[in-house]
Every structure is written in structure tokens, then in C-alpha cells.
Specification:
Helix content is 47%, strand content 12%. It contains 15 helices and 9 strands. Strands 1-4-5-6-7-8-9 form a 7-stranded parallel sheet. It has a two-stranded antiparallel ribbon with strand order 2-3.
Length: 322
């Protein structure tokens, strides 16, 4: 088991380390990446570390003028909404992110046999940030481009898919044991739109990763109606948010696919008896799956009590011990 966003704002040691350091600056300093990645491993005893970074790091590395604003998220200075702007997106080279290579190498030495999970943002989510200029509730500019200018959309998605793949390749080459493609906002699409406008690109990413012989995880939020398509893209593990019970998710993914998830992160604010009861329900429904990685249904919320996460790790380990 591990937690999405286990390295982050819920930890007081993280907040202390990040004082006065901007998010993207922290993501470019190997010493900070290593320390922040290791903090939840030390505190919680989780079974895997998740590389501390952000999905927009490779975009920043190729020269996109963007920043992560506290309380807002990634903000792009000049949104990309035409072919000329798309054509200015260049490929990502390993030399663009030397801090990633250095940090992954240091982490694998420190973690020993404990896996390090690398990750990248999925092409739809990266496209949405670039087109909208920041987080969006309705993704109206993104969908307008996808619907109205399919040739521009295809070129943008091809370039972003290559960037995401190369970012994952850098992490794998440096020693990452597994990778997750994190398409946060793809749940905003209908199944028909996902199949036509996103699936070809995510499938290509997973096909290319298949040559590298590492476990591949695919996750998106609000993707209950897309689980079969997320699985069709070719990952070994499909992450499921809290909206779909795992025994139901099993019926929607490809045979032999493991599941990851899916305790509602908000559950951790309830009394422990509720946390335990709902954790038992997740573990029970997961028995139908061909493999299960216990996780939350999305990231750890910033105000979560770390003591509850510690207790949850111990509880799941006790319940699943053989």
C-alpha cells in the first residue's frame, strides 16, 4: 500500500522544509526531492515511495512559461490554442531534467528493496492546463479545441504524449520500479470522446512503456464510466477513485488487471471506527480483483492528520498479513 500525495502538505516536516521555497523550485532540487519523497516512508512505513514532483515539471523544463500558484495550481502565462503555439512545443530531453535523474538515483540507493514509483501527467490533463491557462471546472476551451479543431488537437496530444513518455523513461532509466500515468481531469469526458480523442494517445504511451518491463498504473478522477477504456489503454494496474466499489470495477477492466484504491480521502476525518469499517469494505471488495494495491481514491487531503494515516497503514498491514 501507498498513498497518492503521501509526500506533501499533510506532513509538518514537509511544510517546514518547503518554507520560502516555491513548488517548482523544490521539484528541481535533488536534495529536496529525496527528502520529501522519503518523509512519508519514514513516518508511515508504506510499501512504496512516490517520486516527489509535479505533472507540469516537464512542461516547465521545455520552456513553457508557467508557475504553480498556492491555492490555485498550475498557471500558464500564454495559453496554447492554435497550431502555431502547438508547434512551439519541443521534445523533452534527459538533459532538461538532470535533477530527476540525480534524485531517482539517490532514492533507489536509500530505499533499497522498497519500490520507487515514478509518474507523469496524462496527455489530456496536460493539454487542459495548457489550453485553459490553469485549472478549469468545465474545460470549455479544451473541449472546444478538441471538438472544433481535431487536427490541432491531434498534434498537441502527440507532442504531449511524447513528453509524458520521455519523462517516465528518464525516471525508469534512473531506477524507478514502477510508473503511474496520472490523467487527473480525464473524467470530464464522455466515454465516446475519450475513445476518439484520448485513448489512442494513452494506448501509445503504455505500449511504449511495455518495452521497459516495469509495472504501469493508470489513474484518473471521476472515471467510473471510463474504467473499461482506461484498462483498454494497456496498463497493468488501474486506479479506481472512491465512487466505484472495487468488486464493480473488476467487471469493467480487462481480465488480469490489478486494481489500486480506493478509500475516500475524506473518510480519514471521520472517527476511527468509521475508517476501519470502510477500509474493511475496500479490502473485502478487492478480493474479486486480480491483485490489489491499497490506496486512497485520490490524494491525501492537506489537512489530514498524519497519525490517522500511520494507523491506517498498520491496520491494512495487519488485516492483509499472511
Amino acid at each position: 500500500m501507498w498513498f497518492m500525495r503521501q509526500a506533501g502538505r499533510s506532513l509538518p516536516e514537509y511544510r517546514k522544509l518547503r518554507e520560502g521555497v516555491a513548488m517548482l523550485d523544490a521539484c528541481a532540487r535533488p536534495d529536496m526531492i529525496v527528502e520529501i519523497t522519503m518523509q512519508p516512508v519514514r513516518r508511515y512505513g508504506v510499501d512504496a515511495a512516490i517520486f516527489f514532483s509535479d505533472i507540469v515539471v516537464p512542461l516547465k523544463a521545455i520552456g513553457i512559461d508557467l508557475d504553480i500558484k498556492p491555492g490555485v495550481g498550475p498557471v500558464v502565462a500564454e495559453p496554447i490554442r492554435d497550431l502555431a503555439a502547438v508547434n512551439r512545443l519541443r521534445a523533452l530531453e534527459p538533459d532538461d531534467v538532470p535533477y530527476v535523474t540525480a534524485a531517482v538515483g539517490a532514492l533507489t540507493g536509500e530505499l533499497g528493496d522498497r519500490p520507487l514509483i515514478g509518474f507523469a501527467g496524462g496527455p489530456f490533463t496536460l493539454a487542459s492546463y495548457l489550453i485553459e491557462g490553469g485549472p478549469s471546472k468545465n474545460h470549455e476551451h479544451t473541449k472546444a479545441l478538441m471538438y472544433g479543431e481535431p487536427d490541432v488537437w491531434a498534434e498537441l496530444m502527440q507532442r504531449l504524449s511524447a513528453i509524458a513518455l520521455d519523462f517516465l523513461r528518464v525516471q525508469i532509466a534512473a531506477g524507478a520500479s514502477a510508473v503511474q500515468l496520472f490523467d487527473s481531469w480525464v473524467g470530464a469526458l464522455s466515454a465516446e470522446d475519450y475513445r476518439a480523442s484520448v485513448l489512442p494517445y494513452t494506448s501509445w504511451i503504455f505500449e511504449q512503456l511495455g518495452e521497459l518491463d516495469v509495472p504501469r498504473i493508470h489513474f484518473g478522477v471521476g472515471t467510473g464510466e471510463l474504467l473499461s477504456l482506461l484498462s483498454e489503454a494497456g496498463p497493468d494496474v488501474v486506479g479506481v477513485d472512491w465512487r466505484v466499489p472495487l468488486d464493480k470495477a473488476v467487471q469493467r477492466v480487462q481480465p488480469g488487471t490489478a486494481l489500486q484504491g480506493n478509500l475516500d480521502p475524506a473518510t480519514l476525518f471521520a472517527p476511527w471506527s468509521v475508517v476501519a469499517e470502510r477500509t474493511d469494505a475496500v479490502l473485502s471488495s478487492a478480493k474479486a480483483a486480480d491483485g490489489h494495491v491499497f490506496n486512497l481514491g485520490h490524494g491525501v487531503l492537506p489537512t489530514t492528520d498524519p497519525a490517522v494515516l500511520e494507523r491506517l497503514v498498520d491496520y491494512v498491514h495487519e488485516k492483509t498479513a499472511r
